[in-house]
TrEMBL record:
Keywords: Signal, Transport. The keyword Transport applies. It holds the Pfam family DctP. Residues 1-17 form the signal peptide. One of its GO terms (cellular component) is outer membrane-bounded periplasmic space. This is DctP family TRAP transporter solute-binding subunit. PANTHER family: C4-DICARBOXYLATE-BINDING PROTEIN DCTB, PTHR33376. One of its GO terms (biological process) is C4-dicarboxylate transport. Gene3D superfamilies: Bacterial extracellular solute-binding protein, family 7. Coiled coil: none annotated. Belongs to the bacterial solute-binding protein 7 family. The keyword Methyltransferase does not apply.
Length: 328
């Protein structure tokens, strides 16, 4: 009896901890790797859950698992297919196993700002790319922007040559590897949750990420400073399993997709402000941010942009042209 009581108490505890989904509600689990708050993706996930949980109460219930607590980005895609989670939002750099088209978004110095990103992702070509992984059972529901990326290292980076011989952590992206190698540096692919430790122990010398990731993961604490290169986009694909989505009743699916669309637009409109706030917090924490002169920036562009040609055939010249055109 004692054992049975303990087991049922443990079960009740687990059910409670797993949020307040009630019987009959469709459970939508969303796993991501960043901070739960103060980050474009963390905040967008929360906003989505709040809307689903209030507007679809009785029909659906969303639970968000931030900070890699449930899955890493390399495991979450499999988890979507197995039905262990229903939503994920890995960065566009992390889909190389399923499509090479997203290499587009990693091309250094492709988008001049987040407005250009918004124009491209809401245009025809951007929308078409949402369906580029249906052969694998994945469907993109939208793009969530997160900002442009900045370099940091354990020494000042002003000229590209300053990166020579250093080792940088990169995401699982061959474009990022090529870009780092163009600097005469070495790239090491590491999971996001391992980056702070790798910087702290000197496994890598530097990294590249958005202001929000550099601040919320405290990378600035274990780096000499951050160089404002704005060299590459960090954005996510809000992704689900085709099979799961199509298992929903039409009215449920329509309501859910409408909420997703509205949250996506609202979240993307708030990114630039969140990024600026996190940049400011890094300064206030006493870290150094190095701005580049026009001449120095040109040197970074001239060094890294030639990698485009290496990936042109994977992506398609037309698609690259279309993204470039979104800058004007
Ligand atoms: C990274 O691995 O650096 C990013 O993709 C993490 C994230 O989700 O912002």
């Amino acid at each position: 009896l004692a054992a049975a009581t303990a087991a049922s108490l443990a079960f009740a505890g687990a059910a409670h901890a797993a949020d307040d989904c009630s019987d009959g509600e469709i459970v939508i689990k969303f796993s991501h790797v960043v901070a739960a708050t103060g980050h474009p993706k963390g905040d967008a996930a929360t906003m989505l859950a709040e809307r689903v949980n209030s507007e679809m109460d009785g029909k659906a219930c969303m639970q968000v698992f931030p900070n890699s607590q449930l899955f890493d980005d390399d495991k979450v895609m499999e988890a979507l297919l197995l039905g262990d989670v229903q939503l994920a939002a890995p960065s566009l750099s992390k889909f190389e196993a399923y499509t090479l088209k997203f290499r587009l978004f990693d091309l250094p110095f492709l988008f001049q700002d987040l407005n250009a990103v918004e124009r491209f992702t809401t245009g025809t070509d951007g929308k078409d790319l949402l369906g580029s992984m249906t052969d694998y059972g994945f469907l993109g529901l939208g793009y969530w922007s997160s900002g442009l990326k900045q370099f940091s290292a354990n020494k000042p980076l002003i000229q590209p040559a300053d990166a020579n011989g250093l080792k940088f952590r990169v995401q699982t992206s061959d474009v990022a590897v090529a870009m780092i190698e163009a600097l005469g540096a070495n790239a090491q692919k590491l999971a996001f949750k391992e980056v702070y430790g790798a910087l702290q122990t000197g496994v890598v010398d530097g990294q590249e990420n958005s202001w929000s990731n550099i601040y919320t993961q405290k990378f600035f604490e274990v780096q000499d400073g951050i160089t404002e290169t704005n060299h590459q986009l960090l954005a996510y694909l809000l992704v689900t399993s085709d099979e799961w989505l199509n298992s929903l009743d039409d009215d449920v699916k329509t309501q859910f997709l409408t909420i997703v669309e509205e949250v996506t637009a609202k979240a993307n409109a708030a990114v630039a402000e969140k990024e600026a706030a996190n940049r400011q917090r890094i300064l206030e924490a006493g870290s150094t941010i190095r701005e580049l002169s026009a001449e120095d920036r040109k040197a970074w562009v001239d060094t890294m942009k030639p990698v485009w040609t290496k990936f042109e055939s994977d992506i398609g010249a037309d698609l690259i042209e279309s993204a470039v055109a979104s800058n004007t």
